[in-house]
Predict the structure.
Amino acid sequence: MEKRPKILVTEDEKDLAEPLCRGLIEEGFDTEVAPTGEIAFRRLSSSWDLVILDLALPDIPGESLLAHLRSQRDYPPVLILTARSSVDDKLSLFRQGCDDFLTKPFIFEELVERVRALLRRSVRVKQKVCCFENIVLDPSTYCLSDGNNEFVLTPKEAAILQLLLGSPGRVISRKELLHVVWGLKEEPETNFIAVHLFNLRKKLAQINRDGWLQTVRNSGLTFAKPEG
Ligand code: CA
């Protein structure tokens, strides 16, 4: 039997949460309701396939829960339910890491289709591992391996390496790195990138890839087999 995707429904309005869960169960999902922010806070984890999050909860703002979820490894996609509908609100929610949202009141069928689309996408993302010269990086688990040894990278180390492995040999500029990995458009005041690169190089050395993460003077970084 196919596994039923598990959805956490964070919604304080009983009149909405109950029919919503009933409907989702009929559509083939397993659901659990978190009626307060505090319960949601305790229940949020990567074990859910998807989280439906009401922004207006009585105790903890939905945005805080979103931030908490995003700080975890391998967090599930988040579909936000909100009464706010201005373009600014929508942009702000995407920037905070929501994957999709619906404005209340919504049509149940639309919610189900959005849930299915998010789940399809997240399965694809999970399966997309990066490989180069026997190095394998799984971006969903941050696991780096050369077939013999395996190391878990930090989320930032994994993001840096994912970017580099995506186009081996290409020089990635510092600007691109800052933008893709940290979402920064401006040069930061401290050189925090150096620490991440130092640690990443140490882990690469442990799988005999010493010198593969190369600094290209005045240009940026590249990932390639060292010459000689
Ligand atoms: Ca509410």
Remarks:
- The chain has two domains: 6-121, 130-223.
- Residues 12-13, 54, 56-57 surround calcium ion (CB under 6 Å).
- The mean pLDDT is 89.
